[in-house]
Design a protein that fits this description.
single chain, alpha/beta, Rossmann fold, 2 domains, seven-stranded parallel beta sheet, globular
Length: about 475
Amino acid sequence: MNRRGRANSRPPRTRGTAEFTAPVPTAPPLPAATAFADLDMPPALLAALGAQGVTVPFPIQAATLPNALAGRDVLGRGRTGSGKTLAFGLAVLARTAGRRAEPRRPLAMILVPTRELAQQVTDALAPYAQALRLRTATVVGGLSLRGQANALRDGAEVVVATPGRLKDLIARGDCRLDQVGITVLDEADQMTDMGFLPQVTELLDKVRPDGQRMLFSATLDRNVDRLVRGYLHDPVVHSVDPPAGAVTTMEHHMFYVNGTDKHATATEIAARDGRVIMFLDTKHAVDRLTRHLLKSGVPAAALHGGKSQPQRTRTLAHFKSGRVSVLVATNVAARGIHVDDLDLVVNVDPPADAKDYLHRGGRTARAGASGMVVTLVLPDQRRDMNRLMTAAGVTARTTQVRSGGAELRRLTGAQAPPGVPVTIAPAPAEASERGGAPKPRRRGGTTRSRRPAASEGQQPRGRARVAPRRGAA
């Protein structure tokens, strides 16, 4: 059963995602920037951006950074993959530069809903924090509490945290927020949906009342209204995407399948050349499909809340490196995961609502790339899926498909799996010991050849390099 107590075959629920009326700022916003060099940022930070090849800001960065650097509260909406991390991260680092935090008393706090997103934010900001000699601490569940306490004790100017673990450290006396002058809530709508709101408000009540607050999300619906009204002062509001987060480079398909053929259809899609994320409702369903794919000869790995943090980190590393080609996941992978050259997302189980659909789909077609979202729809789910797509503001092409069919192959590259079981060895030191990422090993001694995946920041194959590189983080 999933977090709503629904069985695997339940039809999707069309929870409303109506937007609240955003506040109108009394002071006009500053004009958007056309280049990072035009912004009031430390020279070392500008040099680090240049070294990373990041010179032209994405729209959400161009709109929000001038105001965030000026100390204004900011309410920003941009779709997943639009560059929100640098939009708030560069402002946090620039405004913290030159200061030194006391032990256990960070100067800036970035709250996120998931461990994966916390690590991604930390990794994205790492080269810029190092350039400014700022220390960061990542505080999430599933990892050593003592190690995180030590990082805070040693002093960290910026803490990136999930609310629950940060509360634990505060309760132990390992962290105080009275010096936090800059607070960011990333994916705030998800935090309210996941029941984090009491924890988030408790943490916000502990930071400096005169500090700067920034709230960023892919959707701004009525769930975040309390945070905006209660904690943002005269915020500058920027929305660089339509409410539904529609992406012109993303194709949407609903595949009508029969219940007896759904499993075989999903297997053939997974066996395609190229990577794919497949979403299911429950961790048990994820584990079952992963085991089936491995037995069928498809390199796959499972990601869900029942895995330990080291397992989840290793699984994501294997997927990003191309060691496994299929990530089978619950909604834990719907946010905070960026993989270059990922062109297909499959909802094996339809999402619960429009918001989940948009965030699952947001794993592809990121930073201007193209991608496809496919949802497998059983006959009794068609009406609810039509309502969900309307609520999401998405027009999807509907196609009746079957395993082995020509349309399935043409649209997704589906093919019959090899049938030779594959084993993904978990040894974490294999890559360094062998001088590179190890290949999937098959029982019987054969290895299936797959196209290597583009590494982080590397231009995908078959696409012309575009210069200058924009702020895609």
